[in-house]
Amino acid sequence: QVQLVESGGGLVQAGGSLRLSCEASINNFSWYVWNWYRQAPGKQRELVATIVPGGTTNYADSVKGRFTISRDNAKKSVYLQMNSLKPEDTAVYYCNRRGDWGQGTQVTVSS
Fold first, then answer.
1. In the predicted model, is pLDDT for residue 42 greater than 90?
2. What span, in angstroms and rounded, lies between the C-alpha atoms of 105 and 100?
């Protein structure tokens, strides 16, 4: 059974930064596409960032230029560096691989 454990969320003021981490208990971590999603209260879950095995990344328009997704295959971990945070970034952030999800980590950005 795949386990994804996120960490790094918290409360930060607008303009601040946070780095989310997701550690995966999975074989062949490097083979897979990894995603970060987020879900704000009353809204649908949305795709924030994606990284493919070769390292190519893709971002939602709302976070381009502010967020960076990265991966460390040796540590079986994927990261989301979030800079210039805005109150509208407030959400629960989830790590994802195919149908596997972590428990989520809360990010709250105060104005």
1. yes
2. 15
